[in-house]
Amino acid sequence: MNNKLARQGLLWSTIERLGTQAIQLLLMLYLGRVLGPSSFGYVGMLTLFLSLAQVLIDSGFSAALIRKSERTEKDY
């Protein structure tokens, strides 16, 4: 692989990650201002649940399912 292409890919990946984090931060600041403490707490709990689910998805669960040669409906 070309060194220039690797650097360019790393740059775009970094921009994507920073952009996502910035949007999430701004959204949480906005929701914290608009919603009351109780409603914002619900949003925080939902965010935590979704983050944990994303960790499970990113940790290779789908790759492990693909490797299994005899899948059933129960696996999904």
TrEMBL record:
Predominant place of localization: membrane
Cellular component, GO, one term: plasma membrane
Membrane topology: Multi-pass membrane protein
Pfam families xrefs: Polysacc_synt
Spans traversing the lipid bilayer: 42-66
Cell compartments where the protein resides: Cell membrane
Keyword Transcription recorded: no
Keywords associated with the record: Cell membrane, Membrane, Transmembrane, Transmembrane helix
Entry similarity comment: Belongs to the polysaccharide synthase family.
PANTHER family hit by this protein: LIPOPOLYSACCHARIDE BIOSYNTHESIS PROTEIN WZXC, PST FAMILY PREDICTED COLANIC ACID TRANSPORTER
The protein's name: Wzx
Organism: human gut metagenome
